[in-house]
Design goal:
This protein is of the alpha/beta class. It has helices at about 30, 40-45, 55-70, 90-95, 110-120, 150-155, 170-180, 180-190, 195-200, 260-265, 275-285, 290-305; strands at about 80, 90, 100, 135-140, 155-160, 165-170, 205, 220, 240-245, 250-255. The longest helix is centred in the first third of the chain and has 15 residues, at about 55-70.
């Protein structure tokens, strides 16, 4: 089983499941830091299990668990070459981030749609359908997913045992009682492209029942609603933070850039007007300050707008 042969079947449902949550696992970045070239999938799975002759039974068990954890990870990519102009991406662009999602109260279909987008890597400008460019996603509280309508009772999972009259079926309601993580994994696998990369992409998905997970060492960030990463070819722009204070038709703009340090010290705005320090601090704490004329003008504008409901 260790010398390159798979100890599990060919279908994604037969893959090695995520390891139990009984101890903290090492960071994936530390485990794959010594790899300098792209490995083939068979070579990655065929790594021998390290062991020593003088190690105890507990140490041997821990090393075997870590070895199985490495096998359950997708093949690392120190660098990648995209199609077209054959652009070479270094490790910073191919680095996989870690995200965490709380499935409490989220509909199963919408949650699966978000997970599929991250597993495919479509949120990255370097997306390539021929490579595994996705990020790791940790899903917690999968047993508290929501289902709209009567999907929980009506939808079923069917399979055949291969024998006569061997058609089996189970409802989503029964699967949520026994193995909710298997249900979400199955739905996500149905949405991924049916090719050899589906098994590798599903290894990025870590599903757990309950709020705890063993990947706290990775420091996963909460998955935002609209995830989009920056392009590795575009330099980061130096955006100055602007704090504007309105008084009538005059503005006081305070920038955080280094070139505006002198203006901040002198308390002069873009028009050259000198402001009082106490007044500026009070306005910034209280919010925007409007003059009486500006307030009357705003009220007149609101009154002139016709009411659509009437």
């Amino acid at each position: 089983g260790v010398e390159g042969r798979r100890a599990f079947g060919k279908l994604p449902k037969h893959d090695v499941p995520p390891l139990p949550n009984h101890r903290e696992w090492p960071r994936v970045k530390d485990m794959t830091s010594g790899i300098t070239r792209n490995m083939k999938r068979k070579e990655w799975l065929g790594q021998p299990m390290p062991f020593r002759k003088d190690e105890t039974r507990e140490e041997r068990k821990a090393s075997r668990e870590e070895h199985l954890f490495r096998r359950s990870l997708p093949v690392p990519m120190p660098h990648a070459t995209l199609h077209g102009p054959h652009t070479r991406l270094e490790a910073d662009s191919t680095h996989r981030r870690w995200w965490v999602v709380d499935a409490t109260g989220k509909p199963m279909g919408r949650l699966a749609h978000e997970l599929i987008r991250v597993l495919l890597g479509k949120h990255k400008p370097v997306y390539d359908p021929t490579l595994v460019m996705g990020d790791f996603v940790v899903v917690t509280n999968v047993d508290k997913m929501a289902f709209t309508g009567k999907k929980l009772q009506q939808r079923k999972r069917r399979w055949h045992s291969g024998y006569l009259k061997g058609l089996k079926e189970v409802t989503y309601e029964d699967m949520m009682k026994t193995k909710p993580e298997q249900l979400l994994r199955m739905v996500v696998s149905f949405g991924l492209p049916k090719n050899n990369l589906r098994r590798e992409r599903l290894k990025l998905l870590r599903i757990f029942v309950g709020p705890d997970h063993p990947h706290a060492a990775e420091g996963p960030d909460p998955l935002p609603m609209f995830l989009k990463t920056k392009s590795p070819w575009v330099a980061d722009k130096q955006v100055d933070e602007v704090v504007s204070v309105l008084e009538g038709e005059e503005f006081f703009e305070m920038y955080s850039g280094d070139d505006m340090t002198q203006r901040i010290q002198e308390l002069t705005d873009s028009t050259g007007k000198v402001w009082d320090l106490e007044r500026v601090e009070r306005i910034i704490e209280d919010g925007q300050e409007f003059s009486e004329e500006a307030q009357k003008e705003a009220e007149e504008i609101l009154k002139s707008i016709p009411d659509i409901d009437k």
